[in-house]
Amino acid sequence: MDTNLGRTFRRLRKFKNMEIKEVASEDISYAQISKFERGQTDMTLTKFLSSLKAINVSLEEFYHEAYFYNLSKGPLFNYDFCQKFEIEDKEKLHQLLKIETDLLTLHPSIKCHKLNIIQIKSQLHLIDPNIQVNKKDTLFLKDTLFLKDTLFLKEYLLSINKFCAYELYLYSSCLHLLDYKTQEQLIQKIISAEDEYLDFISPKILKIILRLIPIFIENNFLDSLPLLFTYLESHTKSDLFFYEKVTTVYLKALYELKINPENHEASSLLNSYSEVFKLFNSLETEH
Fold first, then answer.
1. Mean pLDDT confidence for 71-97
2. 16: Cα within 13 Å, side-chain hemisphere
3. Fewest beta carbons less than 10 Å away: which of 8, 19, 107, 250?
4. Given pLDDT bands bounded at 50, 70 and 90, which one contains residue 67?
């Protein structure tokens, strides 16, 4: 266990490409954070949790980074925690949006509030693309600000050196807001990370890739697909990933048919696997 909490905090902050001034707030000063990172002072639990939130790191992730760092000399995280914004309740999403908007007003330098707002708006937009914002909702950031938010989101994600659970959920929930070239850059950055890191985030990455590939195929953005298929095939060998295996075979056939519309083998495979997916859906409905 790396018992120097400040050193672990600094390492995680650096992974997020964040400066101390971006973490500092009314609750904790630049000087306090700097001294904490150098091991010169301790931090109260309230301030510590607030600082973790500012760099988008959960307490579980912090613990695993501190515990495993001396063993592997690399970032290891526990990704078994729930993303509170992955919900489909418009009223609850608007409540969360109000909370995060107020927090951003109080602490404009803390990135996580801005990023949380983007996630919530992204979910609202997916639920209802034509969602209207009435006068009472003017405290909320309107859907018309999506483009500005997308630029902020893109710059943030591309600046990250190591993706933690927060960034993966953020990326996954906002896939539709990013252009294809940015998608390609991000996914290649993620899957090129060291193996120890991928062992912990692989399930979430698999879901992201399986969502990305159909989008890339539909829009003829095909250059990176061989690399993504290689990744999927090498990380779904376990029987625990049966559904992912089946989906990978299906998407690969779809890709091959896109390249060569006369590929009868791929066409036949697609028809066969369509029946498999129908069976999956019927089983899910029954249970």
1. 53
2. 24
3. 19
4. low
Q: For residue 266, which amino acid is it?
A: A
% of the chain surpassing 90 pLDDT: 13
Q: Are 164 and 57 in contact (CB under 8 A)?
A: yes
The Cβ of residue 113 has, within 10 Å, a number of other Cβ atoms equal to 21
Q: Is the pTM of this model over 0.70?
A: no
Output the CA–CA distances (angstroms, integers) from residue 183 to 136, 137, 180, 224, in the order listed: 35, 31, 5, 10
Cα separation, 8 vs 119, whole angstroms: 27
DSSP class of 142: P
The 3 state secondary structure assigned to 147-195 is: HHHHHHHHHHHHHCCCCCHHHHHHHHHCHHHCCHHHHHHHHHHHHCCCH
- Number of Cβ within a 10 Å radius of residue 147: 9
Q: Which of 191, 201, 126, 142 is nearest to 169 (CA)?
A: 201
Q: pLDDT tens-digit profile of 227-239?
A: 999 989 988 888 7
CA dist 233 and 263 (Å) reads 22
d(CA 12, CA 23): 12
What is the C-alpha separation between 242 and 206, in angstroms, rounded?
A: 12
pLDDT at 230: 92
Specify the residue for token string 């559904």. Answer: 243
Q: Are 104 and 117 in contact (CB under 8 A)?
A: yes
Cα separation, 222 vs 224, in Å, equals 6
Q: Which of 268 and 197 is assigned the larger pLDDT?
A: 268
What are the C-alpha distances in Å from 244 to residues 123, 187, 233, 283? 24, 17, 9, 17
Q: Give the pLDDT confidence score for residue 146 in this predicted structure.
A: 46
**In this structure, how many other beta carbons lie within 10 angstroms of the beta carbon of residue 216?**
22
Extract the tokens encoding 215. 């989008």
